[in-house]
C-alpha cells in the first residue's frame, strides 16, 4: 500500500534527520577541539538537542509515518571532511563554529517549514521548544565565535 506523506510529515522527518546529525556532529567535534570551554558547550548542546529526538519520532508516528534515519555513509563522509579540516587548518575552531551556526540556521528554516505545514497546530509546542533551543544555540555559538582565540 502506498501512502503520500503530508508536507508536515516530510518537514518533521527532515527536521528529525538534521537534528540527529547535529547531535552526532557536535559529539564528534568535541574530540577535535582543543578549547575545553567550547568542547563543553558542544557537549551541552548535543545533550539538549538529543532530548528532542524521541519527541520528534513520536510526533511523526502519531501522524502515521515512520521516523527517518540519517544516511550513515553521508554522515561518515562529512565527519571525515571535518577531521581532515581539523588536521590541516590553523583556525579550525572558528571554521567549526561557523559550520555549526550554518547548520543551526538550517534547522531554524526546517522548523519554520514544519510550522507552516502544521495547519492544525499539532506540533506547536514541540516546534516552539525546539526553536527556543536552536536560537539559544545560535546565540551561544555566535558568542563563542566572537571571543578571542
Overview of this structure, please?
It is a single chain. The protein is an all-alpha fold and 149 residues long. The protein is built from six helices and no strands. It is globular and about 50 Å long. The model has no long low-confidence stretch (mean pLDDT 87).
Shape: globular
SSE string = HHHHHH
Radius of gyration: 16 Å
Q: State the major sheet.
A: none
Oligomer designation: single chain
> How many DSSP H or I helices?
6
Strand content: under 5%
- Class from helix and strand fractions: mainly alpha
Q: What is the strand tally?
A: 0
**Mean pLDDT across every amino acid position:** 87
Low-confidence stretches: none
Note the gap between the termini: 57 Å
Helix content: over 70%
Question: How would you briefly describe this protein structure?
Answer:
This protein has six helices and no strands. With 149 residues, it is mainly α.
Amino acid at each position: 500500500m502506498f501512502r503520500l506523506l503530508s508536507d508536515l510529515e516530510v518537514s518533521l522527518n527532515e527536521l528529525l534527520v538534521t537534528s540527529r546529525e547535529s547531535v552526532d556532529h557536535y559529539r564528534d567535534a568535541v574530540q577535535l577541539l582543543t578549547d575545553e570551554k567550547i568542547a563543553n558547550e558542544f557537549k551541552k548542546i548535543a545533550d539538549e538537542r538529543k532530548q528532542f529526538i524521541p519527541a520528534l519520532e513520536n510526533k511523526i508516528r502519531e501522524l502515521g509515518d515512520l521516523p527517518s534515519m540519517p544516511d550513515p555513509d553521508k554522515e561518515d563522509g562529512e565527519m571525515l571532511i571535518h577531521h581532515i579540516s581539523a588536521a590541516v587548518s590553523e583556525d579550525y575552531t572558528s571554521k567549526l563554529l561557523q559550520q555549526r551556526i550554518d547548520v543551526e540556521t538550517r534547522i531554524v528554516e526546517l522548523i519554520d517549514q514544519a510550522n507552516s505545514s502544521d495547519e492544525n497546530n499539532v506540533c506547536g509546542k514541540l516546534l516552539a521548544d525546539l526553536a527556543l533551543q536552536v536560537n539559544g544555540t545560535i546565540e551561544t555559538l555566535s558568542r563563542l565565535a566572537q571571543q578571542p582565540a
